[in-house]
């Protein structure tokens, strides 16, 4: 499949209306909710579930009282024939995660696949730039290593971990170069132009979530994995990104305002 056709596949993707219904049924108000997982990364299969991630706002009485609300809410269900995995964190927990080298939560903030958002979400996107540091590279090193071990030990080898390896390494390299969070492998490959990726992406899109690879050159992909790891290390070492986050005070102010706003 050509790069152009893969791009069209991604850009024409419609967000099912049932996802909005799920979000509308949540117990607490949401700061925002976005789509993560394979749909965000650009290689969903026909049977891929929808990974919904968001930030909820506990009222003051459930933060200050003896009976406190849940910091993390998780729900997996089939709704209108869609398999949905929903996870939301309270604003305080999420903001603390943002202040750590956690690329996963940054990707949720900057996901273009937004299901719900408040005006303060745009403010959060601006503030979150001050959470990006050169040490986010460690998140992508660790994620890639975990996926490579998973990919290498499984027989037959699955396609999904292999795509995850390339996705996280390219995301990490691009972040170190530019300070921009880009989680979509199709868009990343428009920049890096790895010639073998379009076919791998296509196989995942037209196959099933747990598709396997019957004919795969492990040595080739091991070399590519090491090359990209080395590039991530190289760009980490020369990155002009800050050493520590600068957004703590702004996140603190936003947290207080949101808590008060939703406790009246």
Give an overview in words.
It is a single chain. The protein has 264 residues and is an alpha+beta fold. The chain folds into two domains: 3-131 and 246-261, Beta Polymerase, domain 2, CATH 3.30.460.10; 135-238. Helix content is 53%, strand content 13%. It contains 13 helices and five strands. It has helices at residues 3-11, 17-24, 37-41, 61-64, 91-98, 103-109, 119-128, 137-153, 159-178, 185-192, 197-206, 218-238, 248-261, and strands at residues 30-36, 50-56, 72-79, 82-90, 114-117. A five-stranded mixed sheet has the order 3-4-2-1-5, with helices on both faces. A hairpin with a 2-residue loop joins strand 3 and strand 4 (82-90). The longest helix is centred in the C-terminal third of the chain and has 21 residues, at 218-238. The protein is globular. The termini are far apart. Mean pLDDT is 92; it is low at 1-12.
Tally the helices: what do you get? 13
Radius of gyration over C-alpha positions, nearest whole angstrom:
19 Å
Q: Give the termini distance in whole angstroms.
A: 54 Å
> Strand count, sense and closure of the main sheet?
5 strands, mixed
Number of domains: 2
Helix residue percentage? 40-55%
Structural class label = alpha+beta
Largest beta sheet: strand ordering: 3-4-2-1-5
Question: What's the helix-strand series?
Answer: HHEHEHEEHHEHHHHHHH
CATH-assigned homologous superfamily of the largest domain: Beta Polymerase, domain 2
Name the shape in a single word.
globular
- Tell me the β content: 5-15%
* Mean pLDDT across every amino acid position: 92
Quaternary form: single chain
């Amino acid at each position: 499949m050509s790069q152009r056709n893969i791009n069209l596949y991604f850009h024409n993707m419609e967000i099912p209306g049932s996802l909005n219904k799920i979000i509308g049924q949540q117990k607490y108000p949401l700061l925002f909710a976005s789509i993560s997982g394979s749909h965000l990364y650009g290689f969903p299969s026909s049977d891929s579930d929808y990974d919904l991630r968001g930030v909820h706002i506990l009222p003051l009485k459930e933060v200050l009282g003896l009976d406190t609300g849940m910091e993390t809410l998780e729900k997996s269900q089939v709704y209108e024939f869609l398999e949905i995995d929903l996870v939301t964190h309270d604003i305080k927990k999420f903001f603390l995660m943002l202040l750590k080298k956690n690329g996963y939560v940054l990707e949720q903030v900057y996901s273009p696949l937004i299901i719900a958002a408040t005006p303060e979400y745009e403010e959060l996107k601006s503030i979150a730039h001050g959470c990006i540091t050169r040490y986010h590279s460690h998140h992508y090193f660790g994620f890639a290593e975990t996926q490579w071990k998973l990919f290498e030990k499984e027989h037959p080898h699955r396609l999904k971990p292999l795509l995850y390896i390339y996705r996280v390494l390219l995301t990490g390299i691009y972040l170190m170069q530019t300070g921009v969070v880009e989680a979509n492998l199709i868009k990343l490959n428009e920049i890096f132009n790895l010639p073998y990726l379009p076919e791998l992406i296509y196989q995942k899109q037209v196959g099933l979530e747990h598709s396997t690879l019957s004919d795969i050159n492990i040595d080739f992909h091991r070399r590519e994995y090491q090359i990209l790891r080395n590039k991530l290390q190289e760009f980490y070492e020369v990155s002009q990104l800050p050493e520590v986050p600068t957004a703590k005070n702004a996140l603190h102010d936003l947290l207080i305002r949101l808590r008060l706003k939703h406790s009246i």
